[in-house]
Structure formats: C-alpha cells, structure tokens
Amino acid sequence: MFGFSNFSDLDPTGLVVEDWLSHEDLDAFSIVMAVLYLLVCILGLAGNSLVIVTVLKLDKMSSATTVYIFNLALADGLFMVGLPFIAIQNFQNGWAFGNLACKLVMVLDGINQFTSVFCLTVMSVDRYMALVDPLRFAHWRTPRRAKIIAGFLWLLSLLPVLPMAVHFSANDGLCTMDSQVASDWWLAFICYTFVLGFALPFAIMLVFYTTLVITLRNARQQSLGGAPSPEGQRLENQVTRMVVAVVLTFGVCWLPFYVFNFCSLYLSSLMLDFARGFEFVVLLSYAWSCANPILYACLSETFRRHFRTLLCPRKRSPSIQGDDDTEGYDLHDTTACEMGTVA
C-alpha cells in the first residue's frame, strides 16, 4: 500500500521512531493482526474469484455493467496478492524478498488499488446513465465501449504509481521509500494519491449517486399525478440502499488510511498506539477489496442467484442468463434489471 504499510515508512523525514516493535509488547497484537491479514486475504481472493467466475461463466460480460464488475473484481483479487508480503514484513519487521520484489509488489499493489477505485467510480456514472436515461446513453454502454474504457483505466492507474518504481526499495531490511527522498516530495506524493485515489472518486460517486436518487424520487412523485407507486418506491429504496452501502463502505475503509498518512507528517516521534492504529487502517483499506463481493451478495438478487448456481449446481435457478442484459435499452426492463447489479 504505497509502501506505507510498514511503520518505518511513517518516518520519511528522518523522524525517530520509538522501539515499539519489542516482542514483549507486541507479541499478542502481531499475532492477532497476522490472523486478520490472513482472513482478509482468503476472503478477498475467494469472493472476488467467485465474482470473476460468475461473470465469465454465467454472464460472459454481456453488458457494460458486468464488464466493469469483472475488472473491479480482477483488480480487487490481484490487490489481495500483495497482502501476504505486507503482512510478513509487518509481522517479522523485515523484508525478506529482495529489492526487485519490493518494487514489483509496491507498483502492482498501487496499480490494482487505483484500478479498483477508478472502476468503482466509472460504475457510478454507468449506474446513472442506465437508470436515468438508458436510451440516450445506449451507445456509451455497449460491452465493447466498456472494455475499452476498462483498459484505459488500467493504463491510467499506472501513472500515479510510477514513482514507486523509482523511489521505493528494500532499504535496511524493509521495503520502504528511499531515505534520501525529500520531505516535500513525500508530501506531494501523499497529496496527489489522496486526490486521485480518494477525494476525486468519492466526490464523483457522491454527485452521481445523489443525483440518481433525487431523479428517481422526482420521477416517482410525478408519475400518476403523484400517486404512490409500489414498484417505484421499491426501486428508489433499493437504489438508496445501494448508494449508502457503496459510498459508506468506500469512505470508512479508505479515509482513515489517508488521515493517518497526513498525520504522520506532523509527528515528531511515533508512538506505539499510533503505529498500531496505522497497521489497522492499512488492513482496513485492504478489507475494502473483499467487501465488494459481499455487497453483491447482500444487495443483488441476480448475483445471489448466480452464486447459488455456481456453489449449488443441482439447485439451478431458472432464468440464469440474461437477467443482467442491460443492452436491451427498454426503459422499464433496464431499470428493473439494472438494479440486479450493485455498483
């Protein structure tokens, strides 16, 4: 995670870090964190692998929505691959995999993180186009265009993490930023990763999802002379739950990570509680990548049906394919089936 995930990384300006890593003090804490790291890694790999298989086998990326979901799950799953390296370093307080592996893990870690965030952001725009005016935005929502956009997002994610390949290495037995890097550069690095990796995507998601909910509410109130519509109310409630779940999960998992990074710049020394807290928020940011499959399972009836089909093939549900075909461009059908896929 940007190389910040070990606590020597919190000392880019030469600050003195307390010897908080004594085995007597942190033995129990280290064991608990190691177990949590392992649990998050297993759940993340299993959940996102299930989503990938579901999309490829049952949906075959037949819609723009599932193209983005596939790329989101792929990025989240690959994001989990770097977690064992980070966990081992934190547990042993040392990097045992060499300088090249350090650079590769940090760069790939960053690429997958940004791709995941960018995909989720684009999906908020896709949700808006699909539910508000699917006919108008039909040509933007074909699977082919979605694959092109997804490919662009992977390339775009490479740009913010290029400095990691240059300035991160296995120094003094730890995979961290080079000690000779100026503190101003470190501040600039944290600022632009915060803007690109959290602030801007969070603002875009908030704007499009809020506009979506307001638009659906106004459309429901204007229909039938303002008479209540059970179907419209159900759709509005479902969209609202989706918005709250996605935005809240993203904010809770990522905001503490960036807050701790900014706070680390202004500490004259790092205390044990702060170091422990930082390790926890790093784990929390990784946990976000295993939260998306859970959101699919909880909020998407279609994905629940697909998951049951894969896990319990003898209890195959009817109408497995075609539920998420959002390219039919019929307004009512599109509105109903689009909610089967969580953004």
TrEMBL record:
One of its GO terms (cellular component) is neuron projection. It is a multi-pass membrane protein. GO terms for molecular function: neuropeptide binding; somatostatin receptor activity. Keywords: Cell membrane, Disulfide bond, G-protein coupled receptor, Glycoprotein, Membrane, Receptor, Transducer, Transmembrane, Transmembrane helix. Residues 47-296 form the G-protein coupled receptors family 1 profile domain. InterPro entries: GPCR_Rhodpsn, GPCR_Rhodpsn_7TM, Somatstn_rcpt. It is found in: Cell membrane. The chain crosses the membrane at residues 28-56, 68-92, 104-125, 146-166, 186-214, 242-260, 280-299. GO terms for biological process: cellular response to glucocorticoid stimulus; regulation of insulin secretion. Belongs to the G-protein coupled receptor 1 family. This is G-protein coupled receptors family 1 profile domain-containing protein. It comes from Denticeps clupeoides.
